[in-house]
Design a protein that fits this description.
By secondary structure, the protein is α+β, with helices and mostly antiparallel strands. The protein is 30% helix and 30% strand. The termini are far apart.
Length: 148
């Protein structure tokens, strides 16, 4: 009886591991969408340009405010930055046609509008897409890659 249970458990372990990895990737994608929402809300509240920016070297996202000095300043509060993405995850920022966005960012005007943007988080065939509506600045999270 114990041997049968051990065999069943060993056979199901890869499935549980795959589920855990998918959930971890989905959690990071949700975090990206939440930070985009936060950047939009911050732009409206402060009546300043604010951007959500991917830093590939640090492998994390941060929220930055455009200051009176004409420079972008990263907000240091914990709610304005992401956890570091694992090296096996890939993140891309593109326009609706799939062309990369040079700044790897989503920049919000003081009224909360932005250029329509797609943020994709990928890992081993899994993908989660955050599509940012230009007129409203609202992000939408969906499983899979963006339809272009």
């Amino acid at each position: 009886m114990t041997a049968v249970l051990a065999v069943l458990l060993a056979a199901s372990l890869p499935r549980f591991q795959g589920t855990a990895e998918r959930l971890h990737t989905e959690q990071r994608a949700f975090e990206m969408a939440q930070l985009i929402r936060y950047a939009r809300e911050r732009a409206i509240a402060q009546v300043l340009p604010v951007r959500w920016r991917w830093n590939a070297q640090e492998r994390r996202v941060s929220v930055e405010v455009f200051g009176d000095d004409g420079q972008w300043t990263r907000l240091e509060e914990r709610t304005a930055r992401s956890a570091q993405l694992a090296s096996y995850m890939a993140l891309s920022v593109s326009d609706l046609e799939g062309d990369p966005v040079d700044c790897e960012c989503v920049q919000f005007a003081p009224d909360g509008t932005t250029t329509p943007t797609i943020v994709e988080l990928r890992r081993d065939g899994q993908a989660f897409t955050v599509t940012v509506d230009g007129a409203t600045g609202q992000p939408t999270l969906a499983a899979g890659t963006a339809a272009r």
